[in-house]
Structures are given as C-alpha cells and as structure tokens.
Amino acid sequence: MAQGKLKLAKKKPHRVTKRQRNPKAKARKIFKPKKISFRERELHKLDKKERGRLWEATEKAISAKIGHLELLKGTRREIEANEKKAKQKK
C-alpha cells in the first residue's frame, strides 16, 4: 500500500543566482555598418601603403645583413630607368 500521493508534477527549475547567469547572453549585440564611410576607406588605403613601405624597408634591412644584394638594387622603376640609361649610352 502506498504511503502517500505520487508526485506527478514536474519540479520547478532552481532559482538562478547572479553568478549562474551568462553575461555574454545578456550583452548587447553590436551591428557593424555595412557601408564603410569615405574616411574609413581612405584610412584603410593609407594603412595598406604604410604596410608596404614597412615591408620593403624590412626586406632591405634583412637582405643587407644576410648579403642578398639583388634585393638592394632598388625598385622596379629605378631598375628600368638604369637600363634605359645604359641603352642610351651604347
């Protein structure tokens, strides 16, 4: 014989404390604009140019230390200008 009524109802969820909450779920979502402003585009272009210059300077410094002189000859335009001068002298 049963001692009492069966507990058929589901238990209520436990109380959620402050520490149990996920702060990232409650954080505001940040939506970046799809269209980039003109100023941001120009800054991005300048950043790309500066990275190129920095890369070139680094390559020259490393090649000077190692001894790869073919990298020290100059830019493509400088090399072409030197070739034209050499052809004109002949």
Automatic annotation (TrEMBL):
Residues 1-28 are annotated as: Disordered. It holds the Pfam family DUF2462. Residues 7-28 have a biased composition (Basic residues). InterPro entries: UPF0390 (IPR019034). This is DEBR0S2_04368g1_1.
